[in-house]
Amino acid sequence: MDDAGLWKQIAEGDGEAFDAFYRECAPRIRSFLRHYLAHQQAAEDVMQDTFTEIWRRPRGYDSRRGSLRAYVFGIARKQAAEWWRRQRPEQEAESGEPGVCATEACSLVADAFSHLTAEQRLLLWLREVEGHSYNELASILEIPVGTVRSRLFCAREALRTIWREVPAAKGDYR
Amino acid sequence: MKCDEASEYVSALYDGDLIPPPAAEHIGSCAACKVRIGEYAQMGAELRKVACLETLTTAPRRQWTRERNAFAAYWQKGWESMRIPRLAFVMLIVCIVALGSTLAMVRVRAHNSGVVVLLTVTTGENKPSECALSTVDKRDSSCGFLGDVEHNMLVYTIDLLKRDGDRVQLGIRTKVLPPKTPYTTNDLATEPQQLFWFEPGSTLLVEVPVISPIIIKGNWLDHMPAFTGTHDMDPGPEELRIVSPLLLRGNDVVGDMEGASVMLDKQNWAAWVYYPGQGSYLISLVRMQGGIEAKAELNRISFQEAGSSCVLITGTPISRARRVWVVHKPDFDPNNSSQNGKYGFTASLMLNQAASGEWVPANPTN
Predict the structure, then answer these.
(1) Measured between beta carbons, which residues in chain B are less than 8 angstroms from residue A31?
(2) Do the interacting molecules here have an ipTM over 0.90?
(3) Buried/exposed code over B203-226 (b: 16+ C-beta within 10 A; e: otherwise)
């Protein structure tokens, strides 16, 4: 079923359709939030809030403007931003959690990734892992496409710099 | 072109974006830039590997049900079984609203959580209407209007989007239509939303085509009013009001105290209602010993007792609190007190706090 059809079902209150959509997307949203927020419990809470919000108020999605998945990531980002706003500034530094990873190379990247700023983690994750296009990223982040391009470059360079220094990298990279 | 100049294009090229020919030419012949692309690819692959491992955990199944109030269900049933043309019905509704209307359709609930902005919205020559928006409860963060303004029909919705210190961000959608056009505030969802930062105490002008600007003023409130525009209906901070209480158990009316009332403005008091044949009910804003937690909404208190759903319906909003406690004494015998058991009564009882932290009547009833 296409996104517009699925959205129609959700808007009409089809709980089964929404549950299937939730079960498909929730792990990805949770994983994204976990790396963006660097806080496992908060990621779970924000993920649940995201889907609850969409279910309660199914409005605002326009299939002409992008995929439903990108729309959900956009809502998740806003919920996460709200979570950030409620936290104390020191929370970010305190709450860093390592990624779940088995291989050494993998954990090195995850470690380097955790030293990026929240915005850099957000952007890189959505591009590299979720594969969103520049246009979708612009829509999710509410910034121009040109800014997406330059910020992605900065984020990649920051990650590359830290990654090359790992395991020496310990402090926050800004 | 040098590596420094081309570096941003390396990232874009890696993402499959088109880049200027000089940059492409440089990257094609530069070993360092190729290494950079390789590193980007490696980092991307490692991140995806992390993600794959994490997303193995599935999401637990959840029950998704939407709260549906009785009015909505009634409305839908009526809509589906309508015998007259629906367009004619919609026109009728629009006419009624347009003719009468300087009326803002604002649905709010009585509760005492969070901070609320009470907006006073003036359109054209109409009397100002009020719109209460919660900064913490998203269910109460929007309001809408549909009515005649300067020989046109104005529709607007106001959403409180976020708070930043002493100001709030409002998202406002407007549309001006010819009079009596079939339209609802829900239809505005596809219109562009204008964003404004608004500080209560100031005045905001929202430009609208054809008609005068919408004038918005506002103040902070410490609670969500039960009704806007009729502040005398609004319960005070510690007020509990039981007026003409009608008691339903399941679908049956089991007690009716029409005309009787008890109004309290201190938390350490309980309303006391006796229905002949049903026993007495103590109702309080504080947790009473042996009490059942009940939901308070506008003019009704809902609770479960012995497997039955009970609802106490009153003639005015009950409290700002969303929950109250109810103690039912089915065996209460008024003949053992100063009351006559043949008749029901409402009264008030002072409460004392017990060592457990729960509250009990200062003078025990039987």
Answers:
(1) 51, 54-55
(2) no
(3) ebebebeebeebebbbeebebbbb
